[in-house]
Write a structure and sequence with these properties.
Layout lengths: L9 E5 L6 H17 L8 E5 L5 H11 L4 E4 L16 H6 L4 E4 L2 H6 L4 H13 L3 E6 L3 H7 L3 H10 L10 E4 L13 H19 L1 H6 L1 E5 L4 H8 L6 E4 L6 H8 L9
Parallel strand pairs: 1-2, 1-8, 2-3, 3-4, 4-5, 5-6, 6-7, 7-8
Helix pairs in contact: 1-2, 1-11, 5-7, 7-8, 8-10, 10-11
2-phosphoglycolic acid binds next to strand 8.
């Protein structure tokens, strides 16, 4: 499994447009308690949450004052650093709030906000300019899958997005088939493995063999406690990007404790 490769598994919760700043405080506090009670393996697994922008300051204050084992990041950032871009949020601001990560190119951004691969590459560059690790989201629709097979579209998306990556800077990749997001029907672990392996080859081509060996590739799309162990048993799956289940405390904590249920599938 991925843990044997030395890549520290990452379990990331994408809250999407849910939970205001007060709710975020209650949720993160309870998540930290739940993980502590369950003897969560802080060194072995990294947990990160992606709240709405308006929650980030509250989450930062809580995490830093209590030294909680939870990283956090934004769900998007601007390709620009500052200026007349009403409604946008700079990577500089995310960095100033202690965001370790930022999601880039989530399928909902691509679909509802017209984000192109070229814009996503610019956003990857912006994240790296500010020392924030981009989590580059790629994935095919059901039609793409039918027309082009499993890895063609995500591999092409990743190839363009990585043009924005700064040499030697960390990236994380999230493979999220659009047909699996929010549908309750996850990819099989074999399907996830096949595409994640193809994405690792793209990383090797664009960023080199060392980057390919160390870059974490997550699977996302209807991940839950009942299927995480199967994904994590795959050689090229290094974690999960979790949407709906990240808002259910016990479910998300159980996903984060996947090492205790690997072998149970
Ligand atoms: P889901 O969403 O877990 O609800 O399918 C995943 C995502 O959109 O990142």
């Amino acid at each position: 499994m991925a843990a044997l490769t030395g890549r520290r598994p990452l379990i990331a919760g994408n809250w999407k447009m849910n939970l205001d700043h007060l709710q975020s405080i209650a949720f993160v506090q309870k998540l930290a308690w739940t993980l502590r009670d369950a003897a969560f393996d802080r060194a072995g697994v990294e947990v990160a949450v992606f709240p709405p922008f308006t929650d980030l300051r509250s989450v930062q204050t809580l995490v830093s004052s209590d030294d909680l084992p939870i990283a956090f990041g934004g769900q998007d950032l601007s390709a620009h650093d500052s200026g007349a871009y009403t409604g946008e949020v700079s990577g500089a601001f995310l960095a100033a709030l202690g965001c370790r990560y930022v999601l880039i190119g989530h399928s909902e951004r691509r679909q509802y906000h017209g984000e192109t691969d070229a814009l996503i590459a610019e956003k990857v560059a912006a994240a790296h300019r500010h020392g924030v690790v981009p989590i580059i989201c790629v994935g095919e629709t059901a039609e793409d899958l039918e027309q082009h097979g499993p890895s063609h579209v995500p591999a092409a998306q990743l190839r363009v997005a990585l043009e924005g990556a700064a040499a030697g800077s960390e990236v994380v990749v999230a493979y999220e088939p659009v047909w699996a997001i929010g549908s309750g029907t996850a990819a099989t672990s074999a399907q996830a493995q096949q595409v994640c392996a193809a994405l690792r080859e793209v990383i090797a081509e664009v960023l080199g063999a060392d980057a390919a060996a160390t870059t974490r590739i997550l699977y996302g799309g209807s991940v839950k406690a009942a299927n995480i162990a199967g994904f994590m048993a795959e050689a090229d799956v290094d974690g999960a990007l979790v949407g709906g289940a990240s808002l259910q405390l016990d479910e998300f904590a159980s996903i984060a404790r996947f090492p205790s249920h690997v072998g149970t599938v």
